Amino acid sequence: MANTKSKLEVADPSGLTDADWRGINQVKRAYERGGWDAFWSELETLGYDVVLQIKVAAAFFPNEIRSAIKDILTERGITLEELRELLKKTETLESVH
């Protein structure tokens, strides 16, 4: 019986940190052992760090994740300018602490 499982590859490695690569390798190994169910289950274990979870998923599916984020922002009525302002406020708060 031939192996019909597709190969899972990172679409764009630029900008990925060591922590991102650890997560990527973790979910990739899970996929190789158990397919898509194992991939998604392992990705959920990264849930303590939602940003890491999103970055790992985006490493494999950049267009789909980008589209999903845009859709969620649109559904919530958040514009790109509002998001920029929110991020500026966050950066300011982080520099104070």
Write the layout of secondary structure elements.
Layout (H helix, E strand, L loop, with lengths): L17 H28 L4 H11 L1 H14 L4 H17 L1
The gist of it:
With 97 residues, the protein is mainly alpha-helical.
3D structure, described in words:
This protein has 2 domains: 17-60, no CATH class; 62-97. It contains 4 helices and no strands. It has helices at 18-45, 50-60, 62-75, 80-96. The protein has 97 residues and is mainly alpha-helical. Helix 1 (18-45) packs across helix 2 and helix 2 (50-60) crosses helix 3 (62-75).
**Distance separating the two termini:** 58 Å
Q: Which regions have little confidence, pLDDT < 50, spanning 5+ residues?
A: none
Bin the strand percentage: under 5%
- Return the string of H and E elements: HHHH
- The radius of gyration over CA amounts to 16 Å
Shape call: globular
The tally of beta strands, per DSSP, is: 0
> Which sheet architecture does the biggest sheet show?
none
Helix content: over 70%
Key features of this structure:
97 residues; 4 helices; 2 domains; single chain; mainly alpha
